[in-house]
Task: structure prediction
Amino acid sequence: MQLMTDQDSSATLAELGARVRAWRARRGMTRKALAADSGLSERFLADVESGKGNVSINSLEAAARALNITILELLQDAPRPALARAQGLLGRLDDNQLEQAHALLASSFGLGDAQGREQRIALIGLRGAGKTTLGAQLAAQRGVPFIELDREIEREAGTSMNEILLLHGQAGYRRYERRALLRIAEDHADGVVMTTGGSIVSERETFDLLQSRFYCVWLKASPEEHMSRVVAQGDMRPFDSTRGATNEALDDLRRILASREALYARADAVVDTAARSVKQSLKDLDRAVPKETT
Result:
């Protein structure tokens, strides 16, 4: 009986570690960043993620706060009974039926088209997909403003992204992000092209807000192509480049992309920029978005 208890405990710790690791990947946070935001040591977090940690409720709460989720979201797949029933039903559907179910739910519960939504284009995806380059050119082509959401969040907060995260953490950052989204949608009823941060899809309420006000296009590429473009830009954030750890960074990127792929796929359209020139990708993007109203 004791052996069975030990096995159960090991399985629980392994599952908990996998969940912490998955949430961290979805947020696009390095272990170092999670340690800084939570006040927990990197060594402790490494032990937790490998299923070896001696985890307390307080440490779990600290990690959950830093990830901007509740401890229940970390511990339970479906803390609400009604949500569990809905997930049970949705789990029986195939991919096409799930898309239909999502469209029905969106139209019934306030996530449908807002006025002018199709003229407000939001580009989502990981860094290195070409969001800024293609976004600026598409905006010029359509004769509408081009906006980078990160800069608008800084404007909303009156300080830099680093300072927002340092002073307010992930939760504070997301509050400014939602305010910026609402303001941009209100100020640009006649059209805009906007780039977003790669992790916006991992915040359910924020992504729902984005989809309700903007026509979302996922700019997609392979992990290798994302990485080569990021390296060419000379900006490895949030990956660790202090020891030339490109292979490790690529593994991190693969995990992040895998954890978000289903979320990115909720976009209204997908444009694959892999092995495509900027000119070719711009044509693909132009075909993917609704035409301007006259």
Residues 72 and 79 are 7 Å apart (CA to CA). The longest strand covers residues 215-220.
